[in-house]
Amino acid sequence: MTGRFISFEGGDGSGKTTQIRKLAERIRQAGGDVVVTREPGGTDLGLKIRQALLHGEDLSPRTEALLYSADRAHHMATVVRPALERSATVITDRFMDSSIAYQGGARGLGIDTITKLNRWAVEDLVPDMTILLDLDPVIGAQRVGAKKDRLESAGDAFHAEVRQTFLDLAAKEPDRFVVVDASRTPEEISADIGTAYDRLR
């Protein structure tokens, strides 16, 4: 595969949607082929899984982890790998680091356990670059507003653990992760991401 695979991670309200759109526009303006997708929900099956995960009945942590990894395996096989094989740049809103942070860290299922599960699900494909939009979860919750899904409603301690796990992952893989302060203006954040992308090329 010769395409570039870029993932965006971060807590709820960190601005991933805005920054993914800005980076995709930058690449398209330079003549690049870009596929923008998300997890869960990047496929028809993924939309059903997303509904169950975020808006359905209460789920046990193990059920939650397995549904995310099932979505990821299908997403890999039907969207991500085919795009990379035609040399497109794939930008995904969340990837396996989210499962490691949310289910492995905050849900207490274990970092190693969730890492192994998801590495198996994606056949060991790792992003070329992961943009971590780091933000105080209290600020993130304010940005999300009153209407929250299952994970957004999990509480301050949960989201503090998610943030810390993301930062720990970034510290372990500094060559892959780019940590960006998401408390600043969208323009400042986008400039940092653009610089990181230029280095990747």
From TrEMBL:
Enzyme class, UniProt record, top EC level: transferase
Keywords: ATP-binding, Kinase, Nucleotide biosynthesis, Nucleotide-binding, Transferase
Keyword Ribonucleoprotein found: no
Gene3D superfamilies named in the record: P-loop containing nucleotide triphosphate hydrolases
Reactions that this protein is recorded to catalyse: dTMP + ATP = dTDP + ADP
UniProt cross-references to PROSITE patterns, sorted A to Z: THYMIDYLATE_KINASE
CDD domains in the cross-refs: TMPK
EC number per UniProt: 2.7.4.9
Pfam families assigned: Thymidylate_kin
SUPFAM superfamilies per record: P-loop containing nucleoside triphosphate hydrolases
Binding site for ATP: 10-17
GO biological process per UniProt: dTDP biosynthetic process; dTTP biosynthetic process; dUDP biosynthetic process
UniProt-recorded Gene Ontology molecular function terms: ATP binding; dTMP kinase activity
Gene Ontology CC terms, in alphabetical order: cytosol
Identification of the protein by name: Thymidylate kinase
Organism: Flaviflexus ciconiae
